[in-house]
Write a structure and sequence with these properties.
InterPro entries: Transposase_21 (IPR004242). Pfam families: Transposase_21 (PF02992). With 259 residues, the chain is of the alpha+beta class. It folds into 2 domains: 27-78; 80-258, no CATH class. It contains 10 helices and 7 strands. The chain has helices at residues 2-6, 27-41, 46-60, 67-78, 134-142, 145-150, 153-167, 182-189, 231-234, 255-258; strands spanning 82-86, 108-109, 112-113, 128-132, 202-210, 218-226, 241-246. A 3-stranded antiparallel sheet has the order 5-6-7, with no helix packed on it. A two-stranded antiparallel sheet has the order 1-4. A hairpin with a 7-residue loop joins strand 5 and strand 6 (218-226). Helix 2 packs across helix 4 (67-78). The longest helix is centred in the first third of the chain and has 15 residues, at 27-41. The chain starts with a helix and ends with a helix.
Length: 259
């Protein structure tokens, strides 16, 4: 699994030095993004976005971008891109890694192979899921001054814990979070993991959810919790990541193929 996740990636010998500076936004783009963020936080409808945009545009004499246009702008600025991956129509597996070239599902359940075709008669995928790279999301968080500082909370806790341990071996240890836990210190000292302050620790949570009452469909949601963030904010919806959702109708068979 680790090799499949890495793919052809190799760590560069010299750190990448060039950082592209963000371009200056126009007044219209800034206002549109602020309006879009407020609309998202209020869980507004598409009609609400359009009507409020008309009022804002009339009051300020500044163009407010359409919902489609502002979404495209947000994706471009954050560099987040949704990717589609073919999956088995029965949600058994995703066609990734070593299964990327397969044309039928080979997942076996109760000694029976699914064998559902990947493509329809027109050669189109019968089922797909949308995936957003967690690396892209973390990269976007590091591009923001506020969230970049918050992402260093784990490393700051680790440094404080190591400092106290170095001062005295008789110290009574207390734990408050992953950052000062024995697990974190073991990973740091013995396995040489999380040596860089920018390293990210993630906790994966997956579970099924019945989204509708009238249809039998077990949608499977993957949630990534960023352990680098302070405990008081990391579990908020705005700070958790949902890289993909398996649309159903059944629970995933080969879960690793989706991850």
């Amino acid at each position: 699994l680790k090799q499949n996740l890495k793919g052809a990636y190799t760590c560069p010998i010299v750190a990448y030095q060039h950082v592209e500076q963000p371009r200056q936004l126009t007044t219209s783009e800034k206002m549109s993004l602020e309006h879009y963020i407020a609309w998202r936080k209020s869980n507004g409808t598409e009609l609400a976005y359009k009507l409020h945009a008309q009022v804002l545009q009339k009051a300020t004499k500044t163009e407010v971008l359409s919902l489609y246009a502002v979404k495209r702008l947000a994706m471009k600025l954050s560099r987040l891109k949704a990717l589609k991956f073919d999956i088995c129509p029965n949600s058994c597996m995703a066609y990734t890694g070593g299964s990327a070239t397969m044309t039928a599902c080979n997942f076996e359940k109760k000694s029976v192979i699914c064998n559902e075709p990947r493509y329809n008669k027109k050669g189109m995928p019968r089922a797909q899921m949308i995936y957003v790279s967690c690396l892209d999301m973390i990269r976007a968080m590091y591009a923001n001054a506020e969230t970049s500082t918050l992402l260093r909370s784990r490393d700051n806790m680790l440094k404080r814990a190591l400092h106290l341990l170095n001062q005295s071996t008789d110290i009574i240890r207390t734990y408050s979070d992953f950052g000062d836990s024995a697990v974190q210190q073991h990973l740091y000292s013995n396995l040489q993991i999380f040596r860089d302050p920018h390293d990210i620790a993630l906790a994966l949570s997956t579970d099924g959810a019945q989204l509708t009452m009238k249809k039998q469909s077990n949608t499977w949601v993957a949630i990534l919790i960023i352990l680098n963030l302070p405990a008081e904010i990391r579990y908020k919806t705005s700070n958790t990541m949902v890289p993909f959702i398996v649309p159903g109708p059944q629970s995933p068979g080969n879960l690793e193929s989706f991850i």
